């Protein structure tokens, strides 16, 4: 199962998101659920870098596929981009894939 941890402060601003674990929908390299999750997450990180001036740090473990993005700031644009990522991930989970992806929201 892929776990997505979304960390927000008391004002609802995003501070971090982590993605780890293999969905297990299919074998590695053929897993469409993993592919969809990775695409959304990586596109969000690329979009934050390309379209905002917000500071952030990303750690990626290429072997395991784990991604950890820590946001130093969370502008209106970053909030919209991460909201969009969470929406996409939630829609994946709602389409009978809740045994392959879990989204956990935590307040920091």
UniProtKB/TrEMBL annotation:
CDD domains the UniProt entry points to: Prp-like
Pfam families the UniProt entry points to: Peptidase_Prp
Domain of life: Bacteria
GO MF terms, alphabetically ordered: cysteine-type peptidase activity
Annotated GO biological process: proteolysis; ribosome biogenesis
Keywords, comma-separated and alphabetical: Hydrolase, Protease, Ribosome biogenesis, Thiol protease
Alphabetical list of InterPro entries matching this protein: Peptidase_Prp, Peptidase_Prp_sf
Family from the record: Belongs to the Prp family.
Name of the protein in its database record: Ribosomal processing cysteine protease Prp
Species in which this protein is naturally found: Acetitomaculum ruminis DSM 5522
């Amino acid at each position: 199962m892929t776990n997505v941890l979304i960390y927000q402060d008391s004002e609802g601003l995003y501070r971090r998101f982590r993605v780890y674990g293999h969905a297990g929908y299919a074998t590695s390299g053929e897993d469409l659920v993993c592919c969809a999750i990775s695409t959304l997450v990586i596109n969000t990180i690329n979009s934050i870098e390309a379209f905002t001036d917000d500071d952030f740090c990303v750690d990626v473990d290429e072997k395991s596929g784990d991604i950890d993005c820590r946001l130093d700031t969370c502008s209106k644009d970053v909030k919209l981009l991460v909201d969009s990522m969470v929406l996409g991930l939630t829609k994946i989970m709602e389409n009978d894939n809740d045994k392959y992806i879990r989204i956990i929201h935590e307040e920091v």
